[in-house]
Amino acid sequence: RLRLWPGLRADRELQVFVALTLCFALALASGKLGLSTATGAFLAGMLVRGFRETHWVERAMKPFEVVLVSAFFLSVGMLIDLDFLVRHAATVAALLAAVLVVNTFLNAALLRFLGSGWRDGLYAGAMLSPIGEFSFVLAALGRQTGAISEYGHQMLLALISVSLVVCSPFVLVMGRVLRRDGAPGDGPPR
Fold first, then answer.
1. What is the full DSSP assignment across 122-137?
2. What is the pTM of this model?
3. Rounded Cα distance, 153 and 149, in Å
4. Residue 36 backbone dihedrals phi, psi, to 5 degrees
5. What are 2's strand-pairing partners?
6. Half-sphere exposure of 39 toward its Cβ, with a 13 Å CA cutoff?
7. Radius of gyration of the chain (CA)
8. Residues 153 and 139 sit within 8 Å (Cβ to Cβ)
9. Of these four, 73, 108, 135, 142, which has the most CB atoms within 10 Å of its CB?
10. How many CB atoms lie within 10 A of CB 116?
11. Rounded to an integer, what distance in angstroms lies between the CA atom of residue 17 and that of residue 40?
12. C-alpha–C-alpha distance, residues 88 and 138, integer Å
């Protein structure tokens, strides 16, 4: 792990300021390079996490996390075209089912290859099957660069949103039910 310079170690407020400054500076730099600003912020998070003395920064950033995550999902919600979602509901449902099944079995197979049992692998694969929030950033980047059309962008936004809002809670509840039904030691570690 990395070490901070001595003057910064003792001053926790300065560490929070440096972490936020690093986040915004790397986001700006990656934006200027034509990359996603989220990529720069992600790299800043990895750097901050790499310092031994900043393990507590995660707790100090919780109030910022709540506000920024709320703003993120508010902005994403404003991007979704509900008319598009209703018009293409069957396509969204079919694609989402395919994504969930493929993700579940790919993750389960990978975990099985790494030595996990099939039951544990399927449980973990199901938990990992919904599309993640970072996909919003990738969809926006794809649209911005012209790699995907407006139709493709709206379809991705619909898939990601339905996956997060509907599927994630359902998969989580079903996973917990299956976990309770398993024999002791047959499920994932608690």
1. HHHHHHH-SPPTHHHH
2. 0.63
3. 6
4. -70, 140
5. 51
6. 11
7. 20
8. yes
9. 108
10. 17
11. 17
12. 21
